[in-house]
# Entry
Amino acid sequence: AAILLKLGGYGLIRISPMLNPHPPNLMFPIMILALWGILMTSSICLRQTDLKALIAYSSVSHMGLVTAAIIVQTPWSLTGAMILMIAHGLTSSALFALANTNYERTHTRTLLLVRGLQLAFPLMSTWWLLTNLTNMAMPPTINLLGELFIITTLFNWSTPTIIITGIGTLITATYSLYMFLMTQRGSISTQFRLLTPTHTREHLTLTLHLLPLGLLIMKPAIISGLFT
# Structure
């Protein structure tokens, strides 16, 4: 999720200039599929019962925004695509790491069975909250900057796209909160009374994911290519 999806985005960025200016009969079908994919994969996340499947579908939803931005081929859209790819690479990897810490202790990925883990792992619950807020592009994260660049570019390209991107952003916030509430809140199952404590290496792994996201917002030109 953190590497392979971004290799696909990098390939699109390298190949798209060869087709510039894009012929309309090639541009519009890809754009429609990318925007429709944002809504479909986000909606699928709302009915997922498997934690890893939910995180994987959310990655596809974010990459739909990146694909649409790359197709537009403007400096703002490519900048937004680059920022969102790097931000999502760190965020998605952190979510998978968190899902793995849950699985190692509960041996299940079903959301209904892993509720109430905040009572057992309060510090890990803090990591869940921060990562989910980053996934839903809350300020002042770098994810918000990338999405603003892309949504603004798509709005300039075609005004009705603001409806699709707006609904997609709303659904993203919904399933991010759904994922946090389903895994952390509620009463813990009686079969999970004796759980292995979290390790320092796990907290270090999550720190190394979220710390760059916090630092990059102070100088986003590093990953946006806008050094002037």
